[in-house]
Structure formats: C-alpha cells, structure tokens
C-alpha cells in the first residue's frame, strides 16, 4: 500500500505544478486581395498579407509565484502569409519578446514591446480604421515595436489605469541616443472609453524604421532620416449607444530638427462610427484628416483618407471583411498614399480590398 501511495503522490505533484503555470500558442492569419487604382502610375491587383491585422503567431505564458505574484512572458512573431517571409525587419520575434512580473500593484515587463500609445489609445483609434494613415506615424495602428524597453502598467482602479515605459538606447557615452519614453492613461467603464498618451522616440528612423524605407513614404519620408526625435501626443474617446459606437481622437506628431534644423509637424484627426447591423455583421465609416506644417520650407500639405468597412463574422475565430478607401493629397502635396501601399502618381488613390482573418 505504501508503494501505491508514493506512486500516486509522484503522479499528482506534476499535475499541481502544471496547474499553477500556463502556456498558450496563439496567432492570426490575415490574407486578402487588393485593387489599387494607382500604385506608382498604374493599377495593381495583388495579394496582401496583414492588410488589416498583421499575420502573427506567438507564445504567452505565466507561472504562479503565490500571493498574487506571477512571472509572465510573450514571444510574438510577425510574418507575411503571402510569401512566408519574416516581418518586422526579419526578426524572429519582431512584434514582441518580453518577460516580466505581475503583482497586485501592477506589472513590470522588459524586452521588445509596443509603446504606451498602443495600449492607451490603440483600441480607440485603430478599431475599424482598416488602414492606418500616413504609414502610421503616430503608431495608433500598432505597427512599431521598440527594443530595450522596461514598461510598467498599473491595475485598473474604477476603470482607470496608467502605464509608463523607458527604452534604453545602448550607445556608449550617449545615454539618450535611440532611447524612448512614454506615459499615458486609459479609462474604460460602461459605455465610455478614453485615453491620453505622450511618447518620445529619439532617432526614430533607426528605432522604428531600422534605417531603411523612408524614400517609400511620400508624406513624411523626406524628413525622417534627419529627425532627432519623434514626439507624439494623442487623445481619444469612444462611446457606445446600443449597437453603435462613436470614436474620435487627435494625434500630434513632431519630427524635431528634421528639415534645415526645424520641425515637421503632423496633426491627424479621426472621426469614426461602428454599427453592428446584426451580431455577425459590423459596418464602419472613418475619416482620417492630416494637416502638416513643414518647418522653414513653408509647406502645409493636407492628406485625407475616407474608409468604408464591412466585417462579416463567420465564427469566433474567422471573419470576412471588405473595405473601400479613398485618399487625397492637397495643400501643395502632389501624391496620395493609403497606409503602406505604393504611393500614387497623382493626388488621389483608391484601394478596394477583400480579406479573411483566422485566429487560433
């Protein structure tokens, strides 16, 4: 009998340990077909991965330490489902890779992460937007992660939470080079959600764009390589009335010392409405309005982007979506550019996209 009791104990102990830990494999594949009426001078029909949400897979895990404490980690890979290539500059876990501790007083994480604007304003400003404006300079569309980051996120107090982060640059003798700072708050309770945030990225061309690709961005690409910093102030709110959600927000993005020692500034305003026609059908309409002021050049380009979106939910994991986007350039700007598409050769561009998303 003693042998049987010992054997039963040995079987039960691993089960207890496993019950205190968790490991989850998750992911999403977003694939579709796009028509662009003018991409560098001609019409294009092509497949696009991650047009709405970046295709990804990841591992998230935790270990219970007792007393309300636990270790947490996340490894998240981004990829192109069309070609199978790695995303995020070819990084294995380029979307996120961090480890940290959750406590009753908040969480502290360290590694490659998204800045605080993503958690404080991303859900308000990016939901239903379909394609983020001007290559997501304000990062409200969740496109850019930052290396060497330590982040603190508070618990929720009556719907209110706050977060702050600092990313070390790692340059010997230059503590601020390629560093980043961010802080913000978010409120979500009942029908109202709102957020405010400030993020500052030193040497943004290297930190977020890996020192490449600026020439493809007609809206702010010419000013990016020389920018000393990218400072982003953002505010937004959403309110739900039955099946309808109204969203609005504003971001102020400044590329400092980017053109002849002066700044290039971009103010983007968002107005959006989401309506659940049925439990499995959502319609959204969005207007993104960007007004720029380019330092000593005296230029004041204006960019407009209007989105219509239909999202048909097949199941908890799969949906079909379609959008129509119309973008314009004015105020001296001669080329329109929708999201991360190739720029138009004219001040107007149209994108029609049909896609499918599956989550696992």
UniProtKB/TrEMBL annotation:
Residues 10-322 form the Porin domain. It is a multi-pass membrane protein. One of its GO terms (molecular function) is porin activity. Gene3D superfamilies: Porin. Pfam families: Porin_4 (PF13609). Its main location: membrane. It is found in: Cell outer membrane. InterPro entries: Gram-neg_bact_OMP (IPR050298), Gram_neg_porin_domain (IPR033900), Porin_dom_sf (IPR023614), Porin_Neis (IPR002299). The keyword Transmembrane applies. Keywords: Cell outer membrane, Ion transport, Membrane, Porin, Signal, Transmembrane, Transmembrane beta strand, Transport. GO terms for cellular component: cell outer membrane; pore complex. GO terms for biological process: monoatomic ion transport. CDD domains: gram_neg_porins (cd00342). Residues 1-19 form the signal peptide. Homotrimer. PANTHER family: MAJOR OUTER MEMBRANE PROTEIN P.IA, PROTEIN YDDL-RELATED. This is Outer membrane protein (Porin). It comes from Paraburkholderia lycopersici.
């Amino acid at each position: 009998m003693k042998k049987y009791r010992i054997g039963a104990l040995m079987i039960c102990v691993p089960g207890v340990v496993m019950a205190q830990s968790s490991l989850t494999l998750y992911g999403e594949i977003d694939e579709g077909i796009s028509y662009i009426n003018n991409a560098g001078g001609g019409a294009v029909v092509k497949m696009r991965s991650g047009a709405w949400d970046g295709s990804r897979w990841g591992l998230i895990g935790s270990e219970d330490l007792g007393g309300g404490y636990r270790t947490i980690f996340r490894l998240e890979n981004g990829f192109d489902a069309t070609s199978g290539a790695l995303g995020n500059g070819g990084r294995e876990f380029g979307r996120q890779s961090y480890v940290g501790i959750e406590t009753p007083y908040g969480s502290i994480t360290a590694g490659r992460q998204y800045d605080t604007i993503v958690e404080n304003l991303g859900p308000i400003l990016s939901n239903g937007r379909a394609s983020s404006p001007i290559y997501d300079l304000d990062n409200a569309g969740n496109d850019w992660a930052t290396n060497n980051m330590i982040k603190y996120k508070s618990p929720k107090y009556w719907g209110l939470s706050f977060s702050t982060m600092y990313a070390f640059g790692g340059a010997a003798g230059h503590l601020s080079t390629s560093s980043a700072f961010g802080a913000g708050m978010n409120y979500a309770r009942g029908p109202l959600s709102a957020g405010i945030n400030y993020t500052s990225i030193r040497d943004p061309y290297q930190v977020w764009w890996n020192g490449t690709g600026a020439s493809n961005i007609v809206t702010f690409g010419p000013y990016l390589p020389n920018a000393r910093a990218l400072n982003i102030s953002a505010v937004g709110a959403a309110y739900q009335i039955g099946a309808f959600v109204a969203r609005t927000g504003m971001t102020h993005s400044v590329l400092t010392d980017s053109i002849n020692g002066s700044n290039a500034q971009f103010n983007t305003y968002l107005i959006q409405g989401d309506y659940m026609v049925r439990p499995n059908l959502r319609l959204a309409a969005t207007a993104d309005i960007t007004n720029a002021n380019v330092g000593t050049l005296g230029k004041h380009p204006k960019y407009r982007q209007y989105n219509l979106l239909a999202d048909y939910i097949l199941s908890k994991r799969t949906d079909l979506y379609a959008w129509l986007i119309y973008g314009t350039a004015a105020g001296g700007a001669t080329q329109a550019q929708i999201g991360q598409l190739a720029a138009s050769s004219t001040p107007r561009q149209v994108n029609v996209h049909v896609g499918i998303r599956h989550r696992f």
